[in-house]
Amino acid sequence: MIVMLNPKHNQQLLAQSLAELGVTAYPAGANRVMIAGNDADLANRLAQLPEVLEVVPVARPYPLASREFQQEDTVIQVRDVLIGGSKPVVMAGPCSVESVENIVDIAKAVKRLGGHVLRGGAFKPRSSPYSFQGHGEEGLKMMAMAREITGLAIVSEVMEPDKVALVAEYVDILQIGARNMQNYPLLREAGKSMKPVLLKRGLSGTIEEWLMAAEYILAQGNPNVILCERGIRTFETATRNTLDLNAVPVVKSLTHLPVIVDPSHGVGKRAFVRPMARAGVAAGADGVIVEIHPTPDQAMSDAAQTIDYQEFGLMVEEIHRISDVLHGTREKTVVGV
After folding, report:
1. How many CA atoms lie within 13 A of 268 on its CB side?
2. What is the pLDDT of residues 7-32, one digit of tens each?
C-alpha cells in the first residue's frame, strides 16, 4: 500500500508510530512511503495516524513501478537528454570499449548522426571465460574521455555489487545486464547509487519478474529506472534471441517507467537490427539501444549483430519519422478513396 503523508509530518513521530505497528516503510517520492501488503486492518490503523493523509491500496506486487502508484509517465533527464519524453532516445556504441581512438571515433559518429547516449562495455559478461572481458576501469576512463569530447551521456554495465560505486563514478547511467536481472544484491546497490539504471530483461524473465526486479531498485528510493526489452530465449534458432515486441505495449500499460528496446541483442544479426528498431518504436518504445562500429566485422565482441555508421544513420532517421507520425508532428497525408 502507498501511504500519503502530510507535507508537515514529523519524521521522528512517524518512524516511532510505524515501529509500534511493526511495519517497514520504503521511500516512494515526496511525502509518500510504501508499505508491503494491503492488510485492511493495518490500513485503517495507519489512516488514524496524524501524519497520514491517505492510504492507497495497490494490487500489483510491484507497487512503486505500477501505474496504480503513478499514472503519468516517468521522464528521466540525463544531462540534456529526456528519456520517456515525446522523442525517442537513441543509445549507441560498441559492445566493448576497445581503445581511446576507437571509442572517440564512435562517439563522434553517434553525435553526428543523431544519437543521444554513448554505450560501451568496460566489464563484459561473456559466455566463454576465454573471450575478451573488457578493459575494466581503463575502459570507463576511455568512455569518460569520449563524453568530454562530444558531450554525450554514457551508459555502461556493472556486474558486481562492489563495483557499483566505481562504475557510478564514471557513467551517467548504470546498466544491469540480462544475466543479472535477478541479482538482488546488485539491484539494491544500483538503487542506492541514485544514478539512473537501465535494467535489461532477463533471457527467460517474465514481464512480472522484470517489473519485480525494477521494484528492488525503486525500493531504495531511486525513481530513475529505464526498462530495456533485449530479446528472450525461445525455441527459434533463426535469430540469436526473440525480440518480444509484445512486451512494449504490455509493459507500458502496467508501468509508468520508460521502456526502450535493444534490437542488436534481440535478433543477433545486423541485417535485422534496423527493421526491429523501427518496429520497437512503432510499438511504443521510448527509444533504442544498438551496437555500432566503424568496421563491424572487426569488432572485438558481438561483431555479427553490430551495424556500421551508414546503417545507424538510416536507422536514426527512420525511427524519428515513425515517432513523428505517431505523435502527430508530421504533416498528415490524405489518401483519396
Report:
1. 10
2. 888 888 888 889 988 888 887 777 88
What DSSP string describes 260-273?
EE-HHHHH--GGGH
Domain containing 129 — which CATH number?
Answer: 3.20.20.70
- pLDDT digits 0-9 by tens, 242-260: 999 999 999 999 999 999 9
Q: How far apart are CA 256 and CA 173, in angstroms?
A: 19
Structurally, how many domains does the chain consist of?
2
If asked whether residues 91 and 237 sit together in one domain, one would say: yes
Range in 38-52, 189-203, 273-287 with the lowest mean pLDDT: 38-52
The rounded distance, in Å, linking the Cα atoms of 323 and 87 is 7
Q: What angle do CA 233, 211, 193 make, to 5 degrees?
A: 110
272-277, Cβ contacts within 8 angstroms, sequence gap of 24 or more: 272/239, 273/305, 273/307, 273/311, 273/315, 274/307, 274/311, 274/314, 274/315, 274/318, 276/243, 276/245, 277/315, 277/318, 277/319
Closest CA to 90 of 324, 277, 304: 277
Q: Same domain, yes or no, for 41 and 150? A: no
Pair 191, 217: CB distance under 8 Å: yes
pTM summary value: 0.90
Distance (Å, rounded) from C-alpha 63 to C-alpha 2? 8
CB atoms within 10 A of CB 267: 23
